[in-house]
Design brief:
- The protein has about 375 residues and is of the alpha/beta class.
- The chain has 3 domains: about 100 residues, Rhodanese-like domain (Oxidized Rhodanese, domain 1, 3-Layer(aba) Sandwich), CATH 3.40.250.10; about 200 residues, 3-Layer(aba) Sandwich (Rossmann fold); about 60 residues, no CATH class.
- It has 16 helices and 13 strands.
- The strands form 3 sheets. A 6-stranded mixed β-sheet has the order 8-7-6-9-11-10, sandwiched between helices.
- It is globular, with a radius of gyration of 23 Å.
């Protein structure tokens, strides 16, 4: 397929073309081009054909994946022989990078993002954020909290919500906005810095060599990477005087973790709203987005025309829609789809999964662990 870049697109009338996003749901959750039509590829391209048929025939079709390779190699002339089709050069990541050179009025964009939290998305975002902080006692008098920013939508919003709740002055606490660079390439780091500048988040960046350290690990590199990241964040946060680190896991992460534990780990457990660190004395981990829904985070992101990259490590720096073996879905994405499917018949399924770990009846549990010690129901039968 012929390629077209973002600069060429800017010279075309906006009503002369339409974007078609062929990525999977997992990647779309990190951001989409405004107005793009979703058409995840299937074996017979029927979804793609149906979506294209819904677009006016006189419009050019601009296809994009994550980095542009899949759409460039897509033999679209065989699928849509009568349409004028192009592959977006660099894919979604290329589009995002091009926006960094066209930031516009930063102050105006910051104000819009903050105003949308106070008004348009107050009920969906700030209310559950404040409720989680109060319910689980995540913010306490005299805290110094390291707000850990990965560069994604969740952690960036978390930082803005912390700034907003601090304005209310109901509790005296201090914030440090911490970004660890585990080995990002230049463009990915620049995007994090650009988004922080756009949103008015005064970040402190420190570097590590985690990506290089896990690059040669074959078994569970993502798990090891996550563990190492957390250790580095605890260490840096303690060094700068913080007593807590805050991570951006949300409600959907929680319920997916519960279900994944049962289906794939043969255990009942949840992602806790706060934890004492076992390796860093006096430190805690908190999750203030615990009650915030991912769809509402995405809505805030899209309303403010914000774009974020994925993990951007050596394992995901390439387009996951370009895998030759077709393995594009992680276990978490599979679980997300399973929950969505179950919700069609039971609209309360998500809340029921969440509440299931609040309503554990030990009298009906065969065996459980407490402080690492196993307890069997026959012990007291």
């Amino acid at each position: 397929m012929k390629e077209i870049n973002y600069e060429e697109l800017k010279r075309l009338p906006k009503d002369s073309y339409a974007f078609i996003d062929i990525r999977d749901e997992g990647l779309r959750n990190y951001g989409v081009i405004s107005g793009a039509i979703e058409a995840e590829l299937n074996d017979d391209f029927s979804i793609l054909k149906d979506k294209a048929a819904s677009i006016s025939f006189d419009k050019k079709l601009i296809f994009y994946c994550e980095i542009g390779r899949k759409t460039r190699e897509l033999e679209v002339e065989d699928i849509l022989p009568d349409r004028e089709c192009y592959s977006l050069e660099g894919g979604y990541i290329g589009y995002v990078r091009s926006l960094m050179n066209n930031e516009g009025d930063l102050w105006e964009r910051q104000l819009k993002a903050e105003e949308s939290i106070r008004k348009k998305f107050h009920k969906q975002l700030f209310t559950p954020f404040a409720k989680a902080c109060k319910t689980y006692k995540l913010i306490e008098e005299g805290d110094c909290i390291a707000v850990c920013i990965s560069g994604g939508k969740d952690s960036m919003l978390m930082a803005k919500l912390f700034q907003e709740i601090q304005r209310h002055r109901q509790c005296n606490f201090e914030l440090k906005f911490l970004v660890m660079d585990p080995g990002y390439n230049k463009d990915n780091r620049a995007l994090i810095e650009s988004n922080a500048k756009t949103l008015g988040i005064p970040i402190t960046i420190f570097e590590s060599d985690i990506f290089d350290a896990v690059d040669s690990i074959e078994k569970s590199p993502c798990y090891i990477c996550a563990r190492m990241r957390r250790g580095y964040l605890y260490s840096k946060a303690k060094e700068i005087g913080c007593n807590k680190i805050s991570l951006g896991h949300h409600y959907d992460d929680v319920i997916e973790t519960i279900l994944m534990g049962m289906l794939h780990g043969a255990q009942i457990q949840t992602m806790m709203p706060k934890l004492h660190s076992t390796n860093f004395e006096g430190m805690e981990l908190i999750r203030p987005l615990y009650l915030v829904r991912e769809k509402d985070i995405c809505a805030w992101r899209d309303y403010n025309d914000l774009h974020f990259l994925q993990c951007a490590c050596h394992f995901t720096d390439t387009c996951t829609t370009c895998h030759e073996d077709g393995t594009t879905s992680s276990k978490r994405l599979e679980t997300k789809k399973l929950i969505a499917s179950l919700k069609k018949d039971n609209p309360f399924i998500e809340a029921n999964i969440f509440k299931s770990v609040e309503n554990v009846n030990l009298d009906t549990v065969i065996e459980y662990k407490k402080d690492g010690v196993r307890h069997h129901f026959l012990d007291e039968y």
